[in-house]
Amino acid sequence: MIRWLALVTALALSLTQPASAQESIVTGLSQNRVQITTNYDGSDILIYGAVKRDTPAPTGARLEVIVTVEGPSQPLVLRRKEKVGGIWINRSSVKIDSAPSFYAVTTTGPLAEILSNTEDLRYRISLQQVIRAVGISEEAVNAPDFVEALQRIRLDDNRYRMAIGRVQLLEETLFRADVDLPSNLSDGSYKVRLFILRGGKVIDHQDRFIAVRKAGIERDLYNLAHEQPFIYGLISLLMAAFAGWAASAGFRYLRS
Amino acid sequence: MQIYLPIAEVSINAFLLLGLGGIVGFLSGMFGVGGGFLITPLLLFIGVPPGVAVATGANQVVASSISGMLVQMKRKGVDFRLGMVLLVGGFAGSFVGVQVFAWMTALGQIDLFVQLSYVIFLGLIGGMMFVESLRSLLRNRRQGVALPVKRAHVHTWVHRLPLKMKFRVSGLYISVLPPMLIGTLVGFLSASMGVGGGFLLVPAMIYLLGMPTRVVVGTSLFQIIFTTGFTTILHAVNSQTVDMLLALLLIFGGVIGAQIGAQISVRLQAEQLRILLALLVLAVCFKIALDLLIQPSELFSITPLVLP
Asked: Of B299, B112, B304, B302, whose CA–CA distance to A78 is shortest?
């Protein structure tokens, strides 16, 4: 019984493997490291790649490309204001297990057309899939409204981007996508995922990483604040005291 | 010139920050208040996260207050003895205030707490000051003589409390309990609202303790320096929300602005100054009250989940 089950499972799995790699991708990034310096104002990352194939391109469904850039994820609390006693206060709240701080999806066409639902579920590509909120329906009335609000706020804020049709694809072989990382970045490993698809199915995919780190004085200040908070606090105060004294001394000198 | 702030993790125009610090410093130099009640909402407006706005605002208040107090010290306008008594209460109140702030933040109701506190206190103080200064201004116009603020040379219930001490610089002989209590309340509010507390302390000292006006500004600044400094350290240690780079820019603008403001304040009449401050306080109060009453454009808000 067990062996029969195992055989059937193995067969079923083999049928769901991506179509044997007639086509595969090679990819590259213009930079895989971002240093946040004092004058940091965002970075433009160029993501490029090519499709390798031994046989001529299959006819039928067009080749599509999806590129996603995902920043580090955090758990979040979403709150909604309601009118209580005449004033608007935070009332209901919902916990999100994990949502990326940054998420940009760049594609050759609308997701609904080029990506099937099953593949989306499997690879978690669309915005709805990448935000994980298990069991939130028990937490508040209209819990889905909260998730929709999260997407809306972050789309407006440019933290989440849907760049539909912005992948440039040449002769179903060479492609490029440009992603602007905003200036409000946090440290972490940013995952870049590249997919090629035909007929809604993923044929091949590759992952790359961009390491974002604060550099120089930014990093030193951040580390000091977290590792030696008391000393950091004292330094801030001393700086304040010195500035206060210097200003009054300076003005006295100017007046005399 | 964009500058990336390491703790706030946002990139803001450096000149904007210098200007902001300058404007608030100017107001603080002119009226003798810390300016925290202005700087926190302004920082929020330009995109600094709330925790960082409060903690870094406190840091800036320390600088402007030191700048102002040094000016007052030259004129013997600081009663250090009374200041120490206020401080004892101030530290206790500050400590409790930081805990309450952290608790409210965890509950997700910190915005509401801060907004309600602002509306209540700014409204009360602003209203009282406005009425009092309007009355003096009108009286001056009619009689052409500047009358001193009504002081408690008449012995009230405040003067019958125990534990009396002599405060020579203020010319007072009163119980230490009222100053300590006032200090505690102001310390609490300053830590939980991220303000210096000057706008509370100055009227309390004038009307409740009966201190002469020439000692009030300097002594108030003395207390603010220490309570706000204490709050800054507590925020830095508890929640790592003090952004030194942001503070540096704000302070630079602030201490210069404070000196300019102090110059202008000398040329204004006392009543004119008080009424202007009252109007400013009332304006901020109304703006915050409106925000509470009108439906916000965005009902939803996002905060990171802080695990216990």
From this structure: B302
